[in-house]
Every structure is written in C-alpha cells, then in structure tokens.
UniProtKB/TrEMBL annotation:
It comes from Acinetobacter sichuanensis. This is Acyltransferase. GO terms for molecular function: acyltransferase activity. Keywords: Acyltransferase, Transferase. Its EC number is 2.3.-.-. Residues 94-236 form the Phospholipid/glycerol acyltransferase domain. SMART domains: PlsC (SM00563).
Length: 305
C-alpha cells in the first residue's frame, strides 16, 4: 500500500469513527432522558403503558444502531442461519443461550433480534445500578439485577443463599407481564484461550457452562416460554473488539439460531435441593454444549475452504 493510500485509509477510518461516535452519542442523548423520566414515574405507580413506551423508545435507539451497521458498516458481511423449526415473533417469550467472546456479542444479538424478537434482557449485577444512566436504564427496562453473594459470605451466613435465589426469582417473575427474551451467557464470562486453559475446559471453542442460572430460569419461567433458543456466534476472521466493530474492521459475522427441545423432566425438578436432578441437568447442559462446540467447529471450517 502506498503512502497516499495509507493516508486515505486513515482518513476514512477517522471519518467513520467520528460519524459513528457522533450518531450514537446524539441518539443516546435523544432517547435516554425520556426513558429515565418515564422510569421515575414508576416510583409512584407501576404502569404497563409506561413499560411499553420505554421499550418502544429503546427499540428506536437500537434501530439507529442497526441503521449504522447497515449503511455505515457495509463491509461487514452477515451470514445468519435460523432453524426452520424456530418460529420467532415480537410477542413471544424466549429464553436464549449464547456463547460469549466479545462485547460485540450483545450488538450482534440486538442486530438480529430487533425486528424478530422482544427486547433482549440479560442478568446484570446489582452494582451496575450505580453507573450513571446505564444502571438506571437497566433497572427501568426490567433487566434482572442480581445481588450475588460470594461462597465465603454464604458459608458464614447460609441464609444469604436463599436471599440470592429469592432475588433471582422476583427478577424473572417481573418479566411475565410482557413479551420477553431473556439471555443467559452460560459461560459466565468472555471466552479466551487463557481462561479455557485455566479451566481445563473439555470443549475446543467454549468455556465450561454454569448450569445453575439456566436451571433457575427454567424453574421459574419454563412453562411460560415459547422456546429455548440457542444462538451461536462465530467471527471467522478473529474475535473483534468493540471499537474494531464500529470502525468496520470485521469482515464477516456468522450467526446460527436453533431451537432446543425441552425434555419433560427438566421442568419437574429442584436444582438446589435434589442432587440426582442436579447431576442429570448438568449432564443435559453438557450435552447441549458438546453439540454447540461441534457446531462452532463446523461453522469455522466453512470459512476455511
């Protein structure tokens, strides 16, 4: 590449970065205050209409992001495959699992789901409530916010374990008044080779799944959901950072969505108190993870040919 071409490439990148940054910032300042203002009214009176309005405003914010992806980042090619048995709609109730590699994963989820599924929410830490604007928005929009206690704290005060479960139960039950997509990153953290080696993970492309959160969600919501959806995300050219994505430096993103059939026994046990059920549930999750691991390998191989 010549010196002139390098300068043009740098200028293009700067221009794109400024455009994306300006639009997202402007959109956030436009959409954010109404959500927060309407959320304050819920301190005095709960209102389904307020919740519905806030979701519409949030979807409008997401639609701006999606417009940027389609028109400012046309270099990114999306390869999306949806199981023919998976019938998604905006009025559905879904639990979703997904592998986790980058902050870009959430943007991928939102890009796919905006016009196909209800607003995606995921479990967040209660401590995020203290982050200005972001934490309050999560709370207002009904993201389940968890007060998690450490094993050491629970060992000193066993009652804390039930307190955590009660908080999770209340958070999930609040979703039942509306359509929802509840996302659970079973790995609990972003995948890296270092973490994979530290865990001695038996999977080629995944960390070990944490089954407890999914068991709890299914116990509370299982007979109310329309489908358990598994989303698999692959970045054939390497896992990108958030900045790389918004600068258009991600050539390809592959997404696969499949429906997971729920065995009858899954909704009929007590994960916390029944050791036999817990072992069976963990084996079921492991089997799903083995299938997912093989799927990721297959998706990667498709792009190597």
């Amino acid at each position: 590449m010549s010196s002139q071409q390098q300068k043009q490439s740098i200028l293009k990148k700067i221009t794109k970065g400024l455009t994306v940054g300006s639009v997202i910032t402007g959109s956030t300042f436009f959409h954010g205050p109404p959500v927060l203002a309407l959320g304050l009214t819920k301190l005095f009176k709960k209102s389904a209409k307020v919740d519905e309005t806030n979701i519409h405003i949030t979807n409008s914010w997401l639609s701006v992001n999606n417009w940027l992806i389609d028109h400012v980042l046309p270099e990114t090619h999306w390869d999306i495959t949806v199981d023919e048995n998976l019938d998604l709609n905006m009025q559905g109730r879904y639990l979703m699992t997904c592998n986790h590699q980058s902050w870009v994963d959430t943007t991928v989820n939102q890009y796919f789901g905006l016009t196909r599924m209800p607003l995606t929410r995921f479990f967040t830490k209660w401590e995020l409530i203290f982050i200005p604007f972001v934490g309050q928005a999560f709370k207002i929009l009904g993201f389940p916010m968890m007060k998690r206690h450490t094993k050491a704290q629970i060992a000193k005060n066993p009652a804390l374990k039930h307190q955590d479960l009660d908080e999770a139960r209340k958070a999930c039950e609040q979703l039942l008044s509306q359509p929802f997509t509840l996302l659970n990153y079973l790995e609990g953290t972003r995948f890296t080779v270092e973490k994979q080696q530290q865990q001695q993970s038996p999977y080629r492309n995944l960390l070990k799944p944490k089954a407890g959160g999914m068991a709890l969600a299914l116990n509370i919501l299982g007979d109310q959901i329309d489908a358990l959806v598994d989303m698999t995300i692959v970045y054939p050219d390497g896992v990108p950072g958030y900045g790389e994505f918004w600068l258009g430096e991600v050539p390809r993103i592959a997404v696969n969505l499949r429906k997971i059939d729920l065995p009858d026994w899954v909704l009929q046990g007590d994960y916390e108190e029944d050791a036999e059920y817990r072992a069976k549930f963990q084996q079921w999750i492991d089997d799903l993870w083995q299938e997912k691991d093989q799927l990721i390998t297959h998706m990667k191989q498709q792009y190597q040919n």
